[in-house]
Design a protein that fits this description.
The protein is α/β, with parallel strands linked by helices. It contains 20 helices and eight strands. It is globular, with a radius of gyration of 26 Å.
Length: 437
């Protein structure tokens, strides 16, 4: 999402690299480039001007340490200001209540229903009893979509397909939650246009009837400055508690996302990338600032991994690796776990320095398809004993998987290299322990 902004900010900061000190002239030139980068990325002009004015003042006031180059110091200042622009710290949602009610609102096509499923999945993983309420009575198949998502994550969906009174459905869902012991009700409302008075009044009526503990406004990150204007209109009517940014894996300029906090003075609470139910993250302004500046986001990457990987399975794999018994079944399992974590390019961009390297590289989860096809074309014995795969078996696997013999050979070669590396690491670890004794 922020590739273009990242590239332009890095170019702006380069104007200070190699300088031995910060001056009025070089700071003015650099902040001008930063402002241009922000505006080009669709950041609100007033917001871009305010942040670059603060960056300039801080830079000129900064006493540069001998060990720190002006360019490095400037990056630190930009990071601090971007973090402040987006809210400084992560803010959680209020799910205290008996039950707590989370009302989801937003424009048509912003991704509200998918987000409702993702949020329910996240809360369920935290051990909470969740009910999804289908209150979109206008969009064809909206109720069916929520039911499919609910079945996928194992969360009950309350729906009344024949009822055309959204307020009544919401009230009945709340009553059902109380009766069935659910602790959180997530209410998926109909997408509406900000100018549609009837639809806006309906969501206001749902708010009045349910008295939600949390109202979240879902916005498509790819809609540019319209996203900011819509957020302001919705906030004037609903006084929502937080913003959810969806479709952050898209290729739009993304700067509008940076402006929302400043314009409506409400925190961004979640960011969503991709369609998978696990592709939802709590929004951390400091981590996002690091990603925009190409510093990566290792903490979020680790958190995604912790959510996707089963602890018992991790222990089992660790034991197999230590015994040099890692096989293709284990490898296939790891690929499937990685895919659960979200978009692969998005994950790799969280590794420091990888964002710029991947800028023009087309990577998606479909990249794993040939590998999965090759492994699934092996017999159970071949997966458990990779060394038994000779040339005739490779030809059969190639035909069965619809891949070339070269692809099969490459995969087996890479797998052998990986096993050799594991073996070396185990040997080094054992040698280290012997020396310690």
């Amino acid at each position: 999402m922020f590739e273009s902004l990242q590239d332009k900010l890095n170019k702006a900061v380069r104007t200070l690299k190699g300088k031995d000190r910060i001056t009025d002239i070089n700071v003015a030139a650099t902040t001008k480039e930063v402002r241009r980068a922000l505006v080009d990325a669709d950041v609100n002009f007033k917001v871009a001007k305010d942040i670059t004015d603060r960056i300039r003042d801080k830079a000129l006031d900064q006493k540069i340490l001998i060990a720190v180059e002006p360019g490095q110091m400037f990056v630190k200042i930009v990071h601090e200001e971007l973090t402040a622009l987006m809210g400084s710290q992560a803010e959680s949602i209020n799910v205290k209540g008996d039950p707590a009610v989370v009302l989801i609102a937003g424009l048509q096509g912003s991704g509200k229903t998918t987000f409702s499923g993702k949020l329910a999945n996240m809360l369920k993983r935290q051990g909470r009893q969740v009910l999804l309420a289908a209150c979109d009575i206008y969009r064809p198949a909206a109720i069916d979509q929520l039911k499919v998502l609910g079945a996928q994550i194992g969360v009950e969906v309350y729906a009344e397909p024949e009822n055309k009174n959204a307020v009544q459905i919401a009230q009945n869902a709340l009553a059902h939650a109380k009766k069935s012991g659910k602790k959180i009700v997530i209410v998926d409302t109909a997408g509406r246009l900000a100018v549609d008075e009837v639809m806006m009044q309906e969501v206001e009526n749902i708010k009045a009837a349910l008295k939600p503990t949390e109202i979240l406004f879902v916005v498509d990150s790819m809609t540019g400055q319209d996203a900011v204007n819509t957020a302001k209109t919705f906030n004037d009517r609903l006084n929502f508690d937080g913003v959810v940014l969806t479709k952050l894996d898209g290729d739009a300029r993304g700067g509008a996302a940076l402006s929302i906090r400043q314009i409506v003075d409400k925190p961004i609470k979640y960011i969503s990338t991709g369609e998978k139910m696990e592709a939802l993250d709590v929004f951390h302004p400091d981590r996002m600032a690091s990603r925009i500046l190409g510093m990566g986001d290792v903490i979020s990457l680790v958190e995604r991994a912790q959510q996707a990987f089963d602890e018992d399975e991790a222990k089992r794999l660790n034991a197999k690796m230590r015994q040099n018994k890692f096989d293709f079944n284990d490898f296939l399992g790891q690929i499937q776990q990685i895919k659960k974590m979200g978009n692969v390019k998005d994950l790799m961009s969280m590794i420091p320095g990888m964002g710029a390297a991947l800028k023009d590289v087309d990577i998606d989860n479909n990249s794993f398809t040939p590998i999965e096809a090759i492994i699934k074309s092996m017999t159970p014995k071949e997966r458990e004993n990779p060394d038994m795969i000779d040339n005739s078996r490779k030809k059969r696997i190639s035909l069965g998987s619809g891949t070339s013999l070269t692809q099969v050979n490459n995969l087996i070669k890479q797998f052998d290299e990986m096993r050799k590396m594991m073996k070396k690491m185990n040997a080094m670890e054992r040698a280290g322990k012997l020396k310690m004794k």
